[in-house]
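Hi V.,

Quick status before I head out on leave. The structure for the redesign project is tokenized and pasted below; the design run finished overnight.
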């Protein structure tokens, strides 16, 4: 019975990166032996255990055989006779197929160290094409290590295209697709996750609403990058540079989907794309089973992002309607998510990455102003019921008018 450190921990150690979690493979053991040593079983599909002291995962060495469709379409053999080399052979990428016994030398039967040095994401064997989830995993690794110069090997892209064309991606559950997409969105270069999926044809299968933005033009005066999908990628990169949370990043992902439904005769203008985008944002979030907050912020940003861009031009009444839609007074954190996504959208244009976005500060000040309205004082004037609500709205709109006048006067 031998334990080997495997996968990401070995890879990141060799890259000189911080190791956040360690996974181990156990060779020559049975589940009964693991239990007798105090390990806690957690694996549903194959034997995985939690170490009684370190809390790290220990999996029995296993082989797998394709027996059906999708991520779960495999049968596993985790007998004590399975060797470390056989276990490493079933892994997705060469850089994830290295191992090390504590205190021992690197075990690298598939050229993982070579590909680390060459900055290649390359599949271990042709069995890669048996698991459609690996298409998303490779895209995610490309997003994670793009800053180090990693790219996907052409032969691996070929297998990914085959998987995309085969219909296998349709057998992935929404939960698995969302889990990988959520991780991809939170990487240092989230745009690369979607760009790799586009490159291998998977984006057209999993997110056709996003894929159809390719080749859709926008007015050059506002979008020097022209292509709407390029704009999406630039805006997604801004979400990472700004350190935005998942909800805001998802909102940026879906904020312009409606432009893909604009009739070509209307290009490069996209009149009323906001409402179309809101409907598609809700559709995508529902299909992927994204968290409710992602769905809600995504729909709000899709519907109102141009309001935010034009904040200094809006009437006070329109600003208050926007705040009511956002529930900004009671939920200031929602306003911050909205503003962050809108700023990433504004910066996500060719040559605009360093531009100031005063609209965000203006709307923060405006929300602070309406939040300071003394409701008790208005109630003391004798207003009740619907009349009270109207009086409060009127007071808030009055403050917004004063703020706008002051802001425009003081602005250069």
């Amino acid at each position: 019975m031998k334990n080997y450190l495997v996968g990401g921990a070995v890879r990141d150690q060799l890259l000189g990166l911080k190791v956040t979690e360690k996974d181990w493979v156990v060779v020559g053991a049975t589940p009964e032996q693991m239990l007798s040593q105090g390990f806690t079983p957690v694996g549903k599909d194959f034997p995985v255990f939690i170490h009684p002291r370190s809390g790290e995962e220990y999996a029995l060495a296993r082989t797998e055989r394709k027996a059906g469709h999708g991520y779960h379409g495999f049968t596993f053999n985790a007998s004590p006779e399975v060797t470390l080399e056989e276990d490493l052979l079933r892994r997705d990428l060469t850089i994830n197929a290295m191992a090390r016994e504590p205190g021992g030398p690197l075990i690298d039967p598939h050229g993982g160290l070579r590909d680390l040095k060459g900055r290649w994401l390359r599949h271990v064997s042709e069995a890669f094409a048996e698991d459609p989830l690996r298409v998303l995993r490779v895209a995610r690794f490309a997003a994670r290590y793009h800053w180090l110069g990693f790219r996907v090997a052409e032969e691996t892209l070929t297998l990914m295209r085959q998987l995309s064309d085969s219909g296998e991606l349709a057998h992935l559950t929404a939960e698995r697709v969302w889990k990988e997409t959520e991780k991809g969105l939170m990487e240092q270069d989230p745009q690369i996750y979607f760009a790799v999926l586009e490159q291998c044809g998977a984006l057209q299968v999993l997110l056709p609403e996003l894929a159809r933005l390719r080749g859709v033009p926008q007015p050059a005066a506002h979008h020097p990058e022209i292509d709407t999908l390029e704009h999406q990628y630039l805006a997604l990169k801004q979400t990472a540079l700004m350190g935005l949370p998942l909800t805001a990043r998802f909102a940026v992902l879906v904020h312009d989907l409606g432009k893909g439904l604009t009739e070509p005769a209307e290009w490069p203008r996209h009149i009323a794309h906001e409402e179309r985008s809101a409907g598609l944002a809700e559709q995508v979030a529902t299909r992927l089973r994204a968290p409710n907050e992602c769905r809600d912020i995504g729909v709000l940003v899709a519907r109102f992002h141009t309001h935010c861009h034009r904040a200094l031009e809006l009437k006070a009444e329109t600003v208050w309607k926007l705040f009511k839609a956002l529930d900004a007074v009671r939920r200031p954190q929602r306003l911050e998510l909205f503003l962050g996504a809108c700023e990433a959208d504004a910066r996500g244009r060719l040559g605009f990455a360093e531009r100031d976005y005063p609209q965000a500060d203006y709307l923060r000040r405006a929300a602070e102003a309406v939040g300071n309205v003394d409701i008790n004082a208005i109630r003391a004037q004798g207003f009740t019921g619907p009349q009270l609500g109207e009086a409060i709205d009127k007071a808030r709109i009055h403050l917004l008018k004063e703020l706008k006048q002051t802001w425009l006067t003081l602005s250069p």
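Above is the designed sequence. Residues 1-115 form a domain with the Beta Polymerase; domain 2 fold (CATH 3.30.460.10).

G. will cover questions while I'm gone.

Best,
W.
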